[in-house]
Amino acid sequence: MDHSYRAALDGQNNRGGGRPRPGFAAPYRPADPEPLPAIHAQADAAPRIFAFIDDLFFMAKIQETARKLNVKVEFMKSEKDFMERLKQNGDGPPSLLIFDLNSASVKPLVLIPKLKSKLKKGTSIIGFLSHVQGDLKQKAHEVGCDMVLPRSAFSQNLPQLLRRHGAPEEALGTE
User: Which of 3, 130, 141, 145 is deepest in the core (most CB within 10 A)?
Assistant: First the structure.
């Protein structure tokens, strides 16, 4: 259905920048967080965030948001790749692991408890899923996910999550 007529009606009902129509709030867009200093995104800097994601849409969304915030995120295809990368990472354990709980390449409900036991408390694990997957959400919490979000909430909170976990501890203490 074509709703282009609404723009014309809205212009007639809201002439001169007056109040919006009753029952309609002005659009609210939360401010994006400040980017981290560019030194955190240097090519040789070790990433603090790793993501196990198959969905190209979310990969692109995370990459673009990370680029804007000067945060380095590395995408993993398997547990083996992650363990090899972890051995190379001289800065200690990652700050955040992001899981698409519907991933086909890794089995998140099997991998999360393994990684949780190896990485201990310093690493947060966030999973995202469809909002109708209540059973999967419960299972993810049981196996060790610190936070499980619907896809929409994950997308909405992505800048804040990346900024919080992408900054080194000393940068967070100065704010």
Answer: 145
